[in-house]
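Intended use. Records like the one below are meant for learning the mapping from a protein sequence to its folded structure. Do not use them to infer anything beyond what is encoded.
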Amino acid sequence: MAATAILEYHAEARSLGRNTSLVIMAPPPTRERSVDEYHHLFWAFLKALRKLDPKPWPKDIPEDTYAQTWCFNFDDTPAFIAVLTPAHRDRLSRYAANFCMVYQPRYLFDALFTSDKNRLSATATVRGLVDRYDRIPRSPDISDYALPGTTESRQYFLLDVNETAKCPYPTLAEA
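Structure written out for the chain above:
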């Protein structure tokens, strides 16, 4: 169902303007789960979603989830995903009553970050809002895309403490 939703979103997204996202929301939870359980559910979901991709993985994006230029790709579209869960209590910017993923094609960021000035302004605004909203300091894993020593996979799912939540899979390809 999520694969179909992403494909349908891709068909319409560019006509929706640059302030668009696809929110994939799970049904209300039937039991309480920990942040760590949601972390594993998310990566298992992405790994399963990768198997449903109708297109091959792009040659210009590494498959190694720990690579600094890795990002999730579906239907030949690089994307950023922010995960929210009912288990987040201190990182309120990552809290939602239902487990959900906010899916944003990377070209939306490319359009927003047309200059260093625009990028700095946008990231300062968002990070300032998050800093005021969250009950804990900003995650050290938040950074700009492809900076040395970073990886986007660490930014998709932020823990409710300031520790790195590494992707449990070195690659999302079948193993």
